[in-house]
Design a protein that fits this description.
Shape: globular
Organism: Exiguobacterium oxidotolerans
Helix content: 10-25%
CATH topology: 2,3-Dihydroxybiphenyl 1,2-Dioxygenase, domain 1
Distance between the termini: 35 Å
Strand content: 35-45%
Protein name: VOC domain-containing protein
Number of strands: 14
CATH class: Alpha Beta
Low-confidence stretches: 201-207
Order of helices and strands: EHEEEEEHEEEEHEEEE
């Protein structure tokens, strides 16, 4: 299940505020201060540390079946997208990634596959990465300089991944995300088009 994406951005606080307005909850903030990484998780707010010069490595926000993370960067840059998989699926995917010649970075919590498309794929087996199965991430659209990402995803997963689409571009950029929820169209502080859609209500024929 596609559940996640990660950005680097100079607009950290504004990005948090944007997603908070969409109903996301901050579950983690890790930032560097005095040469060491420290947690600034809620109930702390930006008023508690805004002027402390913290460089945030990661801020994690969750809503339903969606997990969004971002950290401080000099420019906006898309880093990776993530799939929630079973341990058995993870083993199979890593075998295929090795056959494809893709680099694997793994630890107890997360596994990353480095692709030739200037982005990574995260494989997550821990279900606590999401809050629930509600309001899933419906689609991600990327622009990529090198064509063929969708075909390579199909080769990796053994099936078409229709929730990930690409268009030609000069760089790998996250262009659009589509969620389930109240109908909204907006652009986040990093230029990502965010669209929420509601499923149409089907009338009960027996009424």
């Amino acid at each position: 299940m596609l559940f996640h994406y990660h950005l680097w951005t100079p607009n950290v606080e504004a990005t948090e505020q944007f997603y908070e307005k969409l109903g996301f909850t901050v579950t983690q903030r890790i930032g560097k201060t005095d040469g060491a990484f420290t947690a600034f998780d809620p109930p702390l707010t930006w008023d508690d540390f805004r002027d402390d010069g913290i460089r945030f490595r990661i801020i994690e926000m969750k809503r339903g079946a969606i997990n969004v993370t971002f950290g401080h960067g000099k420019v906006v840059r898309f880093d990776h997208l993530g799939f929630l998989v079973t341990p058995e699926q993870r083993t199979l995917l890593l075998e295929r990634a090795q056959q494809m010649g893709w680099t694997i970075q793994a630890n107890e919590r997360r596994t990353f596959i480095q692709t030739p498309y200037a982005c990574r794929i995260e494989l997550q087996t821990h279900h606590d990465a999401i809050l629930s199965d509600d309001q899933p991430l419906k689609r991600i659209q990327l622009s990529t300089k090198q064509v063929g990402f969708e075909q390579e995803l199909q080769r990796l997963f053994g099936r078409a991944i229709d929730k990930v689409t690409t268009v030609p571009g000069n760089h790998t950029v996250l262009q659009q995300v589509i969620f389930m929820g109240e109908d909204i169209e907006a652009v986040d502080p990093n230029g990502v088009s965010v669209r929420q859609i509601q499923l149409p209500v089907v009338a009960d024929k027996h009424l």
